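Z., the sequence and structure:
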Amino acid sequence: MKPFYNPLILLVAIAAVLAPWPLVAQPAEQEREVLYWYDPMYPQQRFDQPGPSPFMDMDLVPRYAEPDAGGDGPPAMRIDPDILQNLGVRLAPVTRGPVEVSITATGQLSFNQRDVAVVQARSQSFVERVYGLAEQDLVERGTPLADLLVPEWAAAQQEYLALRGLDEPRLLEAARQRMRLAGMPESLVDQVARHGKVQLVWTLTSPVGGVIQSLDVREGMTLAAGATLARINGLETVWLVVEVPEAQVAGLQAGQGVEAQLPAYPGETLQGEIQAVLPQANRDSRTVPVRIELSNAEQRLRPGMTAKVMMARQEDAALLVPTEALIRTGRRTLVMVAEEGGRFRPVEVRTGRETEDRTVILAGLEEGQQVVASGQFLLDSEASLRGLTAAPTEMFMPSVPALHEAEGTVVGIEDDMIFLAHGPFPTLNMPGMTMGFPLADPALTEGLQEDDRVRVGVRESDEGLTIEAIEKLEAQP
């Protein structure tokens, strides 16, 4: 069973034992009106008369009427300043300022896939010579890869050379164009025009400087037009791919500067920038890959290395409170707001991003208010005992909790309580057991007796489970 919310039930019990030192300053007991009696271990249950507790081996404790706290605002409780000092209550202001988000993640270097050169045969040819290179070799721009014999280029070159003796510029230019269309590179066309000889052997060179990713050429091979001979990846820049948790990826954008540190070069910090936030998330790790581009002019960065990346960015100004001031119940988030005259009241807030020791407040507070940053749990417990709760507002779009159903047998009925030996509540993931439930309306038990079979509907709240519907079932044979 999920217990009702009481963050410091032990402190509440201690507070009840230490009754001579109440949190809230009170007049003499004989001058105070008793509102009801309660068990400090079950403060949500109220009794009209004093007596022994039905839950614990102790007497019920009276709850006195609060003194007038003054003011026309929402209900609040007033705490004596001396007690606040003894409790170590510390206040913090609600401030407005820029939100700096820092993200640290680990990534891996890879080749820049935009800096790739593919070398192909332009026409059917034969490999006359290779230059002793292999995959993963580093090459510079213009490094020879292989010599190719291309017989198809002979006819186009001979036609061009035959027209050189004629005074026909247009025919000569057309012959030059035919050599280009046959697949001859411009450098080879210029060589034929300059030397006036047929050039059938073409030396294949690397168009970029980088590393040979693949090299599929051997001496004596016959190559078809368009056959891929080599793939060369440039190393002027490399990519660093970082897996960023999807909860932190909002706001990251291309062009944003980052810092990277590599274990291979301790003490050095490299500067880079986000090249792209990739569109597909990893559903197993719930991360989004972010591609960062790093300069590699000295070619010290090698694909496969790991790096730690630090990304920092600032968002628009927002309301901020210390994270330690938040009281998280699992269903909502509260803060204790301090007001003039030593008054305190719980306020429900809607929180945003958390950065270091501060949390963004989206709704519920205003700039300049004071919140309790230390001792707030004890004050919240005292407020709960006094029935002082933060009422939900429209901005939090509250939804009515659903009814959870189970069947059981009536064990006993007492005032506004019913005790059941019930089966499991499937929607609550709660096993069967025997326990007591408070009733939303005591009239729900009319006509019920012990050993009756019933189907009940309970609603879950911060105070626990409350029965709101009871249906008597027919007796089973």
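Residues 86-96+316-396 form a domain with the conserved putative lor/sdh protein from methanococcus maripaludis s2 fold fold (CATH 2.40.420.20). Residues 355 and 438 are 41 Å apart (CA to CA).

Let me know what you think.
H.
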